[in-house]
Structure formats: structure tokens, C-alpha cells
User: Which sequence fits this backbone?
């Protein structure tokens, strides 16, 4: 939180408010799914975060712990997987992963494209829970449950 020293606390706070509201939505959605699955508590949440989602992973992790307090998610771990930007190249006709978000051009042929295929998502990829009768359960985003 080096920003405090540089007198731009307002920027830090507005960033945190943004991430806190996302963290609250996330915790709420996961708690609901966990409850439906009969969870005693949630141990881990896997989240896909697009690099263009506007969410800072560090700030989100910080807010997650706050938002999780007093819920089934308290003490659980949030694992964030950053998703790179993928555009659809109109020339090649296939999705291409961008090495940098500074340049929206196909890395193969150089054609500019703004047809975003991936990179803005804030998506729960799966959650791990402890239920009354079973020690651990994994719930996937598609609703499938499996034993580890
Ligand atoms: Zn191309």
C-alpha cells in the first residue's frame, strides 16, 4: 500500500471500494452455491480474472478476506488465475492470444482487431468445500461435483 505515502489515498480507497464490492458479490455467490451443496465451510475458491477486467488481483485478495468474514468462506483461500487477452483476428480468422494489452494486433499477421474473445471475465471456476458427511468436495463451475 505504498500509495498512501504519496498522497493519493483517495485513489487507493476508490480502488478498494471497487474490489470490495466485487469481493462481496463473489462471496455471496459462492456462499449460496456452497449452501446448496450442503457445505459446512468453503476451503478454496478458484477465480478466473481477465487482465482487462479492471480488477486488481492483490486488492481483490485483500478485500476477499474482509468480505468472507462471518460467512461459510471465512478462512478460505482465493486462487486467482489471470486470463490473457484473446482477440479474433479478422485476417487469420482464428482467436489469437495477445502478448501485451498495449497493442491490439494479431501477433501473427499484424492485423488490428478489437473483437475480444477473452480478457474481461470475472468468473468463478470452481469451489472446494467441506460438508457434514464428506471431508472434501469439489464443485465445478458447471455444477458437477466430484471427490478429489
Ligand atoms: Zn492474424
Assistant:
Amino acid at each position: 500500500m505504498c500509495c498512501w505515502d504519496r498522497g493519493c489515498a483517495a485513489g487507493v480507497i476508490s480502488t478498494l471500494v471497487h474490489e470490495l464490492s466485487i469481493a462481496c458479490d463473489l462471496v455471496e455467490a459462492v456462499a449460496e452455491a456452497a449452501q446448496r451443496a450442503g457445505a459446512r465451510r468453503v476451503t478454496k475458491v478458484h477465480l478466473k480474472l481477465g487482465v482487462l477486467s479492471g480488477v486488481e488481483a492483490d486488492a481483490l485478495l485483500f478485500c476477499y478476506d474482509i468480505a468472507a468474514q462471518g460467512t461459510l468462506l471465512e478462512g478460505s483461500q482465493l486462487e486467482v488465475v489471470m486470463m490473457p487477452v484473446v482477440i479474433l483476428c479478422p485476417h487469420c480468422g482464428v482467436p489469437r492470444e495477445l502478448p501485451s494489452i498495449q497493442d491490439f494486433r494479431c501477433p501473427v499477421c499484424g492485423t488490428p482487431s478489437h473483437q475480444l474473445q477473452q480478457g474481461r471475465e470475472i468468473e468463478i471456476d470452481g469451489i472446494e468445500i467441506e460438508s457434514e458427511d464428506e471431508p472434501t468436495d469439489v464443485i465445478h463451475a458447471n455444477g458437477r461435483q466430484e471427490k478429489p
